Amino acid sequence: MNTARVATLLTVFFAFLCIIQVSLIAQTLDRTRAQISSRSTGAINSLTQIDRNLDQLMNALLSSRFSALSNSAQESTTDFQSAFEIFWGSVTVLNLRTPNTMEIMPAATSLLAETDNYLNFYDPLVNGASPMSAAQTIEMFNDTKIISEKFHDLGHDYFLALSLFSDELKDRIKQLYQTFLALALMVITCGGFSLYSLFKANRKSEELIEKSNATQARLTQVVSELRSGKLENKAKDSFLAAASHDLRQPLHALGLFLGALEKHVEPTGRTIMQKAQESSTALNRLLSSLLDLSRLDAGTVKVQRRHFDLGKLIQTLRNEFQPTASLRQITLNFDTTKHRVFSDRLLIDRVLRNLIENALTHSRGTQLELRTSVNADQLYLAVEDDGIGIPIDKQQDIFSEYYQIGNPERDRSKGLGIGLAIVHRLSEMLDIDLQLYSRHQAGCTFTFKLPLSPEPDTEDTTPSQRLQSSPSPGSITVGVIEDEQEVRDGMEVMLASKGYKTLSSDSADRLIQLIKQRQQIPDVLVSDYRLRRGTTGDKAIEKVLKALNAEIPSAIITGDTSPGRVKELNEGGYKLMHKPVDPADLLAMIDTLAASRYRSPVAQSQQSTMQ
Amino acid sequence: MGMRRLKGNLINLSLVILLSLSGWTGIRASELPKPASKVLLTITGNISRFNKDDSVELDLAMLEQFDQVSFVTETPWTDGPTRFTGVRINQLLEFVGARSNSFRASALDKYWNDLRDMDFEKVPAIIAYQLNDKPMRLRDLGPLWIMFPFDEYPELATEKYKTACVWQLTGIDVH
């Protein structure tokens, strides 16, 4: 950095010197050119000619005198007349040169003036009608001689001046040569410094470019992560996994205890009991929707399209939501339809459920309609309310997670605001072209379309149907592995209150021991996922099955909603339940598992072997 | 250039043959007219036509017979732009049957200058007999003056051509 700056300064300094040098050289050269042209050879020639012409004139004058003596005047007169004219001509030329040569011939001006007088004086005599007298000729000869000597002296002066000028020129050329050498040196030095600076700058700029490229790449990466929501999702996933685990455990226990408590509460406390249960259920539902979202993010939800009876689904929903709607004084107008559609029943159920829940919770309207219409091979569904609507500028936002219009105080009783986010994601997965039509204070309508199905219902029998053939609770023994005393107790109490027999312990080893003591093989195994000493539920169950050499349908309850874990366990083939588990759901699951064991032990064993 | 010179030489050669033939017939010297008044210019040397012995003598009237060429130029020897009027040198050389383009021009004041291989077709030099439309006296550096149109051809403004501007011209000796 410092050397570069010094180099730049030196370059500028030398460049400055070069400019001065060049201007000096130019000045000197110009002066020299002027001097040389003023000391031209023409002046020398002119002086030589004048000198000779004067000699000629004097000779002509002399011979004219001799001719006069020998009586041949006519010819010699013509001779000196022409010599006089020729001299005149050469003087005219020198006259024209004087302004240039004044510098070196200061005597020239006065001499030329004198000559002018001489010429004008003798012109009438020389070119006169009568020839000059002897006296006149001699006088003219003498005057001519004086002028001739003066011109000779002028020529001598000029010669001396030129000699001196020659020396001066030699000196100056030497000086110019030295100046030129110095200039060349400076130019080379200057160029060297410039090149050095250039290379330095070049290297620096290359480094800068590299750095900026790296920065840009990182920026691009970060921006793309931001844009794709990867960062957000990462953070959210880890938060959800941690938070939900911590929340689930106590909620789970609470649910189990409340279930067990139901019988023991006096009729007077029933209402409070019921409210407590409702609250518990609401909490469960919130956590469940969080879990849904996290599952959708993980991509564990796969669309399984089947033909199903939409009318039946709508009917179920109507029955389910009727009490809540009445409570909020909202009239439900659900169309009945006989059409069957081709889509994922469970996911469509979830979409409709969330839309209805959303309308019931947030619309503040009095009517909620679910309409169907058929166009060609498409069935259009519309969920319409007459509530406060959604302003146009908010219509994009409502599909984002945790967004709720008109709930800035984040009243939790109104949900987490993830219902529509789930709907949005599901609609994308299902490709059902979800549309929102709404205006402020004019209600809102969500529409989507489903392909009509011409085929009969290929839907599986629902678990509830299977439950009908399940054995009675009294004949079912449930093996429980749960390391937390509180939850295990809750489970035991709840299951016992519903008439199930339980074998519960905090680890696989204890359970095996217990089973061997009691000589009772459980019909269903339920294990917590995260057990002590880093063991997990799936490993514990495997251990028990191996020790008993039996095939027992099993379920794992986990508080871990991290999508990765969910995926892993699903792939392991276990029935998975998420904390907090609603007691009713747990019982249903146990019944289902038990029923499957009773119904087709062979199939079960085969399936397990295959695993 | 080479071709042109060759062509010129051929013409000259044919002229030589023609003239030597005519020499036999004795009409050699009577070919060119003789000057009637004062001789201003004498051309001698390597020429093939004559009017007096081995030379050609010209008076003002004869010079005025040629195409009159005129131009205005500044010179180191005149005051301001000056009009020179005269005859193209190449025309004169052609007239006397000059066998080369090199010659020595000499003056009344004993000044002389040699010009070698001049292309007078290209360089429009003249022998001027008028300065500013008037005949030149001796003191005006006349009566004849070799002049180049320096203003029109700035490339001629060198010492070579300046020294070739012979004033008070009296003779041309073709080499």
From the coordinates shown, what is the CATH architecture of the largest domain in chain A? 3-Layer(aba) Sandwich
CATH superfamily of the largest domain in chain A: Response regulator
CATH superfamily of the largest domain in chain B: Oxidoreductase, molybdopterin-binding domain
Low-confidence stretches of chain A: 409-413, 457-470, 600-611
Q: Low-confidence spans of chain B: pLDDT under 50, at least 5 residues?
A: 1-5, 18-30
Largest interface: A-B, 17 and 18 residues
In CATH, what is the class of the largest domain in chain B? Alpha Beta
- CATH class of the largest domain in chain A, named Alpha Beta
Q: Into which percent range does the helicity of residues of chain B fall? A: 10-25%
Order of strands in the sheet with most strands of chain A: 2-4-5-7-6
**Continuous helix count of chain A:** 17
Q: Tell me about the biggest sheet of chain A?
A: 5 strands, mixed
The fraction of residues in strands of chain A falls at: 5-15%
Distance between the termini of chain B: 20 Å
User: What best-fitting shape of chain A do the alpha-carbon axes yield?
Assistant: rod-shaped
What is the domain tally of chain B?
2
CATH architecture of the largest domain in chain B: Alpha-Beta Complex
Rg estimate of chain A, integer Å: 61 Å
User: What order do the helices and strands of chain A follow?
Assistant: HHHHHHHEHEEHEEHEEHEHEHEHEHEHH
SSE topology:
The complex is a heterodimer of chains A (611) and B (175).
Chain A: H1 2-38, H2 41-69, H3 73-101, H4 107-126, H5 134-228, H6 230-261, H7 270-298, E1 306-309, H8 310-327, E2 331-334, E3 340-343, H9 345-362, E4 367-375, E5 378-385, H10 419-430, E6 435-438, E7 444-451, H11 463-467, E8 477-481, H12 485-497, E9 501-505, H13 508-518, E10 524-528, H14 537-548, E11 554-558, H15 563-572, E12 575-578, H16 583-599, H17 601-610
Parallel strand pairs in A: 2-4, 8-9, 8-10, 10-11, 11-12
Antiparallel strand pairs in A: 1-3, 4-5, 5-7, 6-7
Helix pairs in contact in A: 1-5, 2-3, 2-5, 3-4, 4-5, 6-7, 6-12, 7-10, 7-15, 8-9, 9-10, 13-14
Chain B: H1 2-25, E1 39-45, E2 56-59, H2 60-65, E3 69-73, E4 82-88, H3 89-95, E5 103-107, E6 112-115, E7 126-131, E8 134-135, E9 145-147, H4 159-162, E10 169-174
Parallel strand pairs in B: 1-10
Antiparallel strand pairs in B: 1-2, 3-4, 4-7, 5-6, 5-10, 7-8, 7-9
